[in-house]
Prior knowledge:
5-stranded antiparallel β-sheet; alpha+beta; Immunoglobulin-like
Amino acid sequence: MNLRIGPILLGFFALWLSLANVALAAEPFARATLATKGTIYAGQQVEVDVDVFAPNYFLSPPQFPLFDLPGAVVTMPDERGLNLNETVDGVDFSGIRKTYVITPQAAGDYVLPSVDIPFGYAAVPGQTTQGRVKLPALRLTVTAVPGGTDGQPGVTAAKVTITQAFDRDPASLSAGDALVRTVTVRAEGLAAMMIPEPAFEAPTGVQVYVHDPVLSEDRLDRGEFRGGVRKDTATYVFAKAGNYTIPAITVQWFDPSLGKMQTAEAAEAKVSVAAAPTNETAIAPPPPPPEKAPFDWQWWGAAALAVTALALLIRVAAGIAGRIQAWFDETRMRRAQSEPMAFHRVDEGCRSGDARRFEAAIDAWSRKTGNIPLARWLDRFADAETRAAFAEHQRSLYRETQDAAQKANLLPLRTGLRKARRLWLEQTSDDEPTPANELPDLNAALGAELREA
Length: 453
């Protein structure tokens, strides 16, 4: 019987060794995809999806850098990365996608630079391997936009609209009055900083003062970017009576879906300015000035002394209050940054069942105490069940997309971590004595709970 089982065990061992070698031989890789379809025109926003893949799962997310691309503006929206899963040659890869927004300013070919994207992943489960991939050299071919007014290229956007508003009725002004004109330009699919500045022109005899613009973003209910908004304000001052015409404001833009130029316009405004009212009523001679009372030096001297004493008292009180507040803030900061409070947040993360909250708390505690990498600390002070539970937590955090309403069961991991910390404190307390000038507890009940833990 033993002679028959032996070859079977050897076969399973060889199969396991072969699969392990395949996983170890797998290397991270990156992929860049042009998300914007069709012809790309100068001034048009282009979306480029960059995917980074690593074997097994990530232990620290990829750090996507902002890079310089001559002749183009490169930005990255604040949306969170998209988690991906893919199997290549029988090896499971975890991926994270980020989207770059590139706005080329002129026609020509653009190639993404070869910049590094660092990250950490589990080449061997439970151990952190530092990985690094290069941004793929994706090429963008940009076509020139047909010339706008005076041969200048217009704005490239899905749609551009202009609205305007006045702070009062333009037909009810008097000489010396001012009229405020607010022009709002909305461009779908274009960043606000790429919207050109409107030209505020004034008729003869009218002064115009242009204020700083206000730039913002137009987003959907789910937070997705829809376009940019630029709001400009100008003040027209009419010194003389008469009838005036404030010129219209136009913005030319190129519609890539139609392949032709379009024009958005804020209409001109007719302004009627009446003469300033005059007061024709006879003016009586002014009355003689009243006699001045003699100056009371004693009263003013006493008042000056009282004000000086009050100012000194306020200054002393402010200094004392500032020192008390500074002492209290420093005490509270030291308490909040202490090791017991850091581990208390780890304990709260376990009880909440929120895997990401727990991951952030245990990472902050390990950095605070110098227990980096955390796997080495677990191997020394945690039991086998705790290490297995932590490894399972890592796999579920980086490999799978979980329902936001589903909570992980971290209570077994909580018990094991508390035991491991107690053992760690017992061993480290023998090597490093507790500082004698430790600050008093700000919350006695919380301190008692942490000491009991």
